Amino acid sequence: MTHVSQSRLSLLCRMVKYQWSVRIVASALPCLLLLSSAAAQRIDSPTALRAAVPLLCTENHQAARTRVRGTGVIADSGGTLLTAAHVIQEAHSDCTLSVMIPDDEWSRFGRLHAFLIKDCALFAPLDLAICHIRPADSSRDWGYIRPARIHARPPVVREAVSITAFTGWGLSPLVRSGHLQGRQTYQRKDGCYCDFATDIIANEGMSGSPVISAQGEVLGILTLAGKGEFRELSFGASLQEAASFLKSEGVPLVGDQNTTADSPQK
Question: Greater confidence, 183 or 226?
Fold first, then answer.
């Protein structure tokens, strides 16, 4: 993979933050009207998981366009990232991958902080990837990381779940809720397999999204959107199925006394 210089990526990230702030200010009045009318409808909806983050692809040529490539979730304070393996594998060679970390909850963040995606370990059978990230600008940005609680327990059929995802060009999270619809092995055409289905419909950019329980724990990773007769479903890999892979990479699991969160690598 070709890399841009850290100073150039830092400049690009500041441009993204500035453009994002301008768009927010420019659309503040109409958005206030929309938000006020929508608030009552979404009062019982789950909130966006702060540990869920957008994976960005910044092109390394002159145009240097940046767009959302997928979604990931921060698993520990040392910068371990979980996502779908194909999100990493399909990144173009002229693309630098990064994530944006908010300085607060997604509902009230003020700034986004760029982290570069470094070494990744892939587990092809479940289409999962574990990567490591580091700050693009300052080591002080480690302080903004808030990891999710990763629970490798079996998902329960009809259990209420939600996802936090990022799609297209936007840096605002999309939250959808639904239920688990099945607990069986689904063989994919590419040789990978999923072990649960949900009635949450997936769009482009949702690959790698965390599947979150009502208790706020990450139970799995969304890896496949249903098509044809399965278009009302999406599929993923449970973290129970991936427990051995997670433990081998040092990912801390809820209730596991043998794993601990890594310290930030400054």
Answer: 183
